[in-house]
Design brief:
With about 500 residues, this protein is mainly β. It is built from three helices and 35 strands. The protein has three domains: about 40 residues, no CATH class; about 230 residues, Jelly Rolls, CATH 2.60.120.200; about 210 residues, Sandwich (Jelly Rolls).
């Protein structure tokens, strides 16, 4: 069957990019002809959960296999959303080894955020170093990592292949293993996800999110076993792995919050949790990417943690700021900010939105020299539009207060809530009779501190919080986990909602 001879009622067609195995319905035939494209060609897969690793709390998973598997042929696959760009040191996705002075193998981001596989002696020199060019510093996006290892190959370049989002990387270091080399992967030595273990010492912690962590023992597989390019959008998307795992293979989907190391491959190669709790289970995945705060836009003295959801400011001589990873131009959006620590009962912080990522803010509001903002300034209980005080007597905030933000970009309003109760009337974010969206088409969540001698920590909840929720409320699409009810018609800042409502 080709695209010109559908239309007969019969068995439902199962299309590929160029062929169809059954009979098309009249509707699907018409849609295909009018759009000149075929229906989606691969089985889409939705990953529901990820695990949030925080390097500051030394989060990792570990297991020592009871026996050795195939150390010459294996595949590692995972989806990753990195957080803070590195300023030095390595971040291990998975590592294994026998301790100080022994052999080790590691898949990691190096100190320049380059993906690589490294093998050698603990505390000594490396014998294998295969590394991709460039850096991987986009903390707002998910990335698929596949490492294909087969030391039985006669050609050295075929022994290790690294893929990012389905495409083999361009290498800047290629010290390949010798033929028939035994790596430490699948050996009966400690394997660590999110860190590296050297004897009793654990370090090189990963900071970010991981989902669908898979190790295949005994097969060197292409990335097409785990993902595919969407034929319509050409975006690399996940597909469910349908093969076998081998003796020491595993698959971690993080669906069980009380057992984040649970292996669902059927092998029961469960990993032991270290410093991770149920709150580290996240719904931020490559299937539905949630907003976070964005490190590349922050003031230098801000510290981000917990999956780029915690923003902490120490004392400084200047005002400072931080911004969200998703900016919107239309639609209605809701998020919450919890004050988790402050050095003053009169908090000189601004919570709101900004039309710019410029961290050099002026005045008492989130306005910069070339942008526009709307913010709640709890120190004097005021709403600021730009740098102009507008509403007053909105009240102060204290530790554990949660400020809700309901941003309506279609009508130009931003409503603040405190612990579920509206602060004043709906806040108008228009200026000079013109809709702000016409002057500044994009707004992003933002926070700043106006006083250099104060410290505070704000924890953002865009729908996948890093703090415990006592009630649990989602938007009308079922996305998000919020402490308070989401206002009618408003939605969590995530890619599935953005695809439906614009932004």
């Amino acid at each position: 069957m080709n695209q010109d001879n559908g239309g007969v009622i019969g068995k439902i067609n199962t299309p590929t990019t160029s062929l169809a195995s059954g009979v098309w319905s009249l509707d699907s035939q018409f849609d295909s002809q009018s759009s000149a494209i075929w229906p989606l060609a691969f089985p889409q897969t939705t990953f529901t959960n990820s695990c949030r690793f925080n390097d500051g709390s030394s989060d990792y998973l570990t297991k020592t296999p009871s026996g050795a598997g195939n150390r010459r042929t294996w595949t590692f696959s995972t989806w990753v959303k990195k957080c803070m760009p590195l300023t030095g040191g390595n971040q291990r996705l998975i590592a294994c080894g026998s301790g100080t002075g022994g052999l080790f193998s590691s898949i990691e981001y190096d100190s320049s955020d380059r993906i690589r596989i490294l093998e050698g002696t603990q505390g000594g020199s490396s014998s294998v170093n295969v590394r991709g060019e460039g850096n991987n510093r986009d903390s707002s996006a998910w990335q698929h990592v596949v490492v294909k290892y087969d030391s039985t190959q006669g050609t050295s370049a075929d022994r290790i292949e690294i893929y990012l989002n389905g495409v083999e990387v361009t290498y800047d270091s290629t010290t390949y293993p010798s033929e028939n080399n035994n790596s430490e992967f699948n050996n009966n030595v400690v394997h660590t996800i999110g860190a590296t273990s050297v004897g009793s010492s654990v370090g090189s912690f990963f900071d970010g999110y991981m989902t669908e962590v898979i190790l295949i023992d005994g097969q060197a597989l292409a990335p097409t076993k785990f993902g595919a390019f969407n034929p319509v959008t050409n975006i690399w998307e996940p597909i469910a792995y349908a093969g076998t795992y081998g003796t020491n293979g595993f698959r971690l989907d993080f669906a069980n919050s009380s057992a984040l190391g649970n292996d669902v491959s059927g092998n029961d190669n469960d990993y032991t949790v270290n410093n991770l709790t149920s709150v580290d289970q996240s719904t931020d995945t490559c299937s539905n990417n949630f907003a976070t705060m964005l490190p590349i836009t922050k003031s230098t003295d801000a510290t981000f943690s917990e999956g780029n959801l915690n923003v902490t400011y120490g004392t400084a001589s200047t005002r400072r700021s931080a911004f969200g990873s998703i900016a919107v131009s239309s639609g209605k959006w809701y998020w919450e900010t919890k004050i988790t620590a402050t050095s003053s009962t009169s908090v000189e912080i601004n919570l709101g939105i900004s039309s710019t990522y410029n961290p050099d803010l002026i005045g008492n509001a989130l306005v910069s020299t070339n942008g526009y903002s709307v913010s709640f300034f709890p120190s004097n209980g005021s709403l600021y539009i730009g740098n102009t005080q507008d509403e007053t007597s909105l009240g102060n905030v204290a530790v554990n207060d949660i400020i809700g933000h309901a941003l309506d970009m279609d009508n130009g309003t931003l409503q603040f809530y405190k612990n579920g109760s509206a602060l004043g009337s709906a806040n108008d974010i228009t200026t000079s009779g013109s809709n702000v969206g016409e002057l500044y088409p994009l707004f992003t969540p933002a926070v700043s501190c106006s006083s250099g001698d104060q410290t505070f920590t704000a924890s953002y909840n865009f729908g996948s919080p890093e703090f415990s929720i006592s009630s649990g409320n989602s938007d009308a699409n079922g996305f998000g986990n919020f402490e308070y009810s989401v206002p009618s018609g408003y939605f969590a800042l995530c890619t599935k909602n953005l695809a439906e409502f614009g932004g």
